[in-house]
Amino acid sequence: MDIKRLIIVAVGGQGNLLASSVLGEAALLANVPVRMSEIHGMAQRGGVVESAIVFGDAKSTIISDGEADLLVGFEPSETLRALNKCNNKTVAITNLSPMPPFTVAIGKGVYPDLNDLQEKLRAKTAKLIAFDAVALAKTAGNVLSVNMVLLGALTQTAILPMSVEHTKQAMKNKTKPAFLDLNLKAFDLGYEAAAGA
Length: 197
Prior knowledge:
The protein is of the alpha/beta class. Helix content is about 45%, strand content about 20%.
C-alpha cells in the first residue's frame, strides 16, 4: 500500500493524543502498518501538541517539510504554523475556532486574520477543509469532542486506508463508554461537514 503521512497539531487539552490513539487503533484493526510519534511541548499550559502518524511500510515516523499527505489542525494558528509540512498535493483540515495564546491575551502578539490564514493554507495545499469544529462539538453535546469532529472530517477524505467502521470500532475501544454516543455523534457531524466542504 502507499505510505500516507499525517500531521496533527493542537494545543494542550484539545484531545490530539486521544485522536492519534484512535487512528493508531483503527489502523491496527484494518491491518495497516502504523508508526506514531508525538511532541507534547508545554501541553499542560496550552502549548503545542503535535502528532506525526505514518501509515504503511515506512521505516520512520519523521515527516519532513513538504512530506505530509494530510494536515489536521485543531487550532487555526497552529495549522498555519505547520504549513511547512505541506505540499501542493496535501489535504489540510482546520478548525476555525481560535484559542489565542497568552501573548495575544496580554497584548504582546497579534492573532492572524482567519481569512488571510485560510488563503495561505489554500495557496500551498491541494484542498482546504475549514469549519468551526467547536460549534459542531457543542451541537454533539460536549465542547471537548472537537477531536472526534475533526476525526470524522479526516475519515471523510478517504485518504487514509481505514474505513469508517474501523475508526468507529477504534473509538469504542479507546474512549470511555460514558462518552461513546456523544463522540460518535461528533464524528458524524465532522464527517458531514467535510463532505460539504
